[in-house]
Amino acid sequence: EKMSANNDIPSNVYSFKDEKTIPDTFYDYPASLTDDKVPLVIDNGTYQCRADWATHEDPRLVFKNLVAKQRGKRNQNEVETLIGNDITNVEVVKWVLRSQFDRNIVTLFDIQEQVFDYVFSHLGINTEGSVNHPIVLTEALCNPNYNRQCTTNSGLSNLFCLKCLMSKANELHVGNPVCFFVQKKPFKGLFFPFSSIFLISKS
């Protein structure tokens, strides 16, 4: 840090802008996604969740992996649930914030289910009772089998999914470089039960 001539006031003063949270957009669900069975990628991180279709270079859904439950203003018996970027001011609801993670392992599976519902609704998935796409979901390194099973059951137990592939977080990310969606190609010797396959690129 440089000092001014009088050695009292720094010559360079930097200001930090407060992060402003903007609620996520509800996107359309075009028929082309359904016809091609495009995979859905969910990077389920402890700080941020990033999600989008595999055909997008950058994820459109990027939000803090947090859930806040508070009493309704008009009716105290109603519980309002805010997720991710719907929480416009974290400090106000800090005492009711919850995360599905204990360190980096998912342990609160009801919260994880709410995060999945948030992703599905904002990506416009409107197929009742099913997600007609393969889902690629990141997990922590050495994630216990029990937690893996409960994670998939919590968010996907009531849904029919074509395929759910769990990947270590250091092998998969949604961003640049991104995952590649390739027609009729095997992934590590495995085939998905349809004409397209999902390949994972390492950063």
Summarize the structure.
This protein is an alpha+beta fold.
Number of domains: 1
| Mean pLDDT figure | 75
Widest beta sheet: strand line-up: 3-2-1-9-10
Structural class: alpha+beta
Keywords: Nucleus, Transcription, Transcription regulation
Subcellular location: Nucleus
InterPro entries: Actin (IPR004000), ATPase_NBD (IPR043129)
Function: Actins are highly conserved proteins that are involved in various types of cell motility and are ubiquitously expressed in all eukaryotic cells.
Could you give the topology of this structure?
Layout (H helix, E strand, L loop, with lengths): L30 H6 L3 E5 L3 E6 L7 E4 L2 E5 L7 E5 L13 E2 L2 E2 L2 E2 L2 H14 L7 E10 L5 H12 L3 E9 L11 E4 L12 E4 L4
Parallel strand pairs: 1-9, 9-10
Antiparallel strand pairs: 1-2, 2-3, 4-5, 4-6, 7-8, 11-12
